[in-house]
Design a protein that fits this description.
The structure is a homodimer. In chain A, about 40% of the residues lie in helices and about 20% in strands. By secondary structure, chain A is of the alpha/beta class. In chain A, helix 6 crosses helix 7 (about 160-180) and helix 12 (about 315-325) crosses helix 13 (about 330-355). Chain A is globular. The N and C termini of chain A lie far apart (about 45 Å). The interface of A and B includes residues 73, 84 and 325 of A.
């Protein structure tokens, strides 16, 4: 019988890069893992059946979007998001905090009430308290639940960052209480502190005292340089509990991922493979290709001659170039699927190289590859 | 070994409804047949692999669109459209005439030169002669080629319609010469004459004198009422050669198709299943459903509980309602595929009922169903 409780096993390390396994009632997740983003209950332009074929073991859903539409009442009718969207593998949900900051108008943080915002769909005022965020994520029936945090925009202002840590820690405590006891699910804390090691350390200390099933690095990939991001990861990931999974939210390009794995991160999510897919950018082992470029107009080679999912190896760059220029839906469908498949290939190569102790060689080969 | 020449076999009749088979080197087409439209080298939002699974045996490509993009040079590199778009079953192409009239600015008909138009993409002036239309369709490597015709807008002006017949007949002769001898392909003539029986008869007489492998009814589905269309079909289809396939261009709803089959038509094409799919209209045995309607918001039933293609029976109307309202690509993907599958189910039922001699009962049951 499968392990029915959430747990994490650290299998081996190569330098600071970690190979592991997350167990959940809905399936195992090999780490380092990449989670495609299904913002509104769909990974844009890709059938769930095909997501599975790429080797994806977990996807991400956005609490903010799902709360507004389809809403809790509909999700409850389906016992959560899995059945609603026809995906029975694990789902991680963010807490909604990040989208509230970036998408809503009139957003306000109130330490007691929570995040106050106007829906970007109908302008309705909504209060998302830490407790409400957990309740919504439970309605989604999410397997990995994130605490509600305050995620400030990129800033060097220590006062703003300190205040965000204080509020986020307070909310994290309330989320932990609301989450209660549920060994089938996980609750992750979110570390804030911008690019300051001392603030990150303070945040980590507060969160580990409360105790979570995993820890996310928040407030990164918000506009800082890649080297600033790698630097703060280098200074702080080792302060995180070794036996818990570590998740870098919203990251990133293949080289962002590679550099973060090199600092001990285990989990990633990003809209990049699908968003790039819709604009004709394809990730390949030859680098990032802009398929709209006229040099591909007569290129008879497929993006990946070995990929048989949905006969992807039967579609030439020439055809993709034609589809993108003609604004055809099929362009998004084919390139998004290709990109997710490439990301999962890339993650498998990362895991293989950690396992065989050759991660540093792989790292050096690809770290500057996709910039 | 398969029959390598194009041919048509009329198997049986039930009233005027005909059951038949078209043989081509690329496969057999059971008639009455519905051809999904792949305007720009893709049936919008549907993988070719999935089109096959709906039982589709032939699709339509648009000469006008393909001439402008990707263009002949690219198509020649792939020996035509089949390999370019990964579809190895038969393809029928229109001649370009209809799109030139409806999409281009500065279009002009010159009896000697052909159709003169400005590209809707870059404004470039292009002359499509009858000979050029056939050459382009041969570059597409189309299995069923249409003559270039002048398709006037809906009018009761006999002078306009007569002139169009005269020009179209002249062009049909030139197309026949340019087509030459190629038993693996078919060349279809296009009957004009608006809603006048005498003009249609004149057009049919001229075309049958030239001699074609099949005959299309053109200049219908251009804004006339359904009963006007059925009336002119009733008055004229019997004038067409019995042993050649008959194709009603650009038609239509399931009930349009049913009524036209009732008058002896064998082939149809229409963008309706995919265009409706993109706006959330689904064709089902319960009628046409507007999935955007809030009454489906909590409807847990799938559109077709028996359809296993791409797990369509796993997606509820509630989920489709959510996707459509959220402008998600997956809505177009799922509903377009469902609609094509429904159309092909509908055609199979039509054929089954002609075969078993129960077509009239089926006709009466569904003729008013999808209006």
């Amino acid at each position: 019988m499968e392990n029915q409780d959430f747990s994490f096993e650290l299998i081996s390390q190569n330098g600071r890069a970690r190979l592991g396994k997350i167990f959940t009632p809905r399936g195992v997740i090999d780490t380092p893992a990449f989670m495609p983003v299904g913002t509104q209950g769909t990974v844009k332009g890709v059938f769930t059946e095909d997501i599975l074929k790429t080797g994806t073991q977990i996807i991400l859903g956005n609490t903010y979007h799902l709360l507004l539409r389809p809403g809790i009442e509909v999700l409850n009718k389906f016992d959560g998001l899995h059945k609603f969207m026809n995906w029975d593998k694990p789902i991680l949900t963010d807490s909604g905090g990040y989208q509230i900051m970036s998408l809503s108008s009139l957003n306000k943080i109130d330490r007691d009430l929570g995040a106050i915002f106007k829906s970007h769909i109908d302008g309705k005022k909504i209060i998302l308290s830490p407790e409400k965020s957990i309740q919504v994520q439970k309605s989604i029936n999410s397997d990995i639940i994130m605490v509600l945090d305050e995620c400030p925009k990129l800033t060097k202002d220590k006062k703003i960052l300190s205040k965000a840590i204080e509020v986020s820690t307070h909310w994290a405590e309330r989320c932990k209480i609301e989450f209660g006891q549920d060994k089938s699910k996980a609750l992750f804390g979110i570390v804030q502190g911008g690019l300051y090691q001392d603030l990150r350390e303070e945040s980590i200390n507060s969160l580990t005292k409360i105790g979570f099933d995993g820890y996310a690095m928040g407030g990164l990939a918000v506009g800082e340089t890649q080297s600033d991001m790698f630097k703060i990861l280098k200074e702080t990931t080792n302060l995180l509990p070794k036996k818990k999974p570590r998740y870098l939210m919203g990251v990133g390009t293949p080289s962002d991922i590679l550099g973060a794995v090199n600092q001990g991160i285990d989990m990633f999510d990003c809209v990049m493979p699908t968003r790039s897919g819709r604009t004709g950018l394809a990730f390949t082992w030859e680098g990032k290709l802009n398929i709209k470029n006229s040099k591909y107009q007569k290129d008879k080679e497929p993006l990946d001659p070995n990929c048989e999912i949905r006969e992807l190896n039967q579609y030439s760059k020439s055809y993709l170039n034609h589809l993108i220029k003609s604004n055809e839906i099929l362009a998004s469908m084919l390139i998004s699927l290709h990109n997710i498949n490439f990301y999962q290939q890339f993650m498998r190569e990362i895991r293989k190289n950690i396992e065989s102790g050759t991660f540093t060689t792989f790292y050096k080969k690809y770290i500057d590859y996709f910039n």
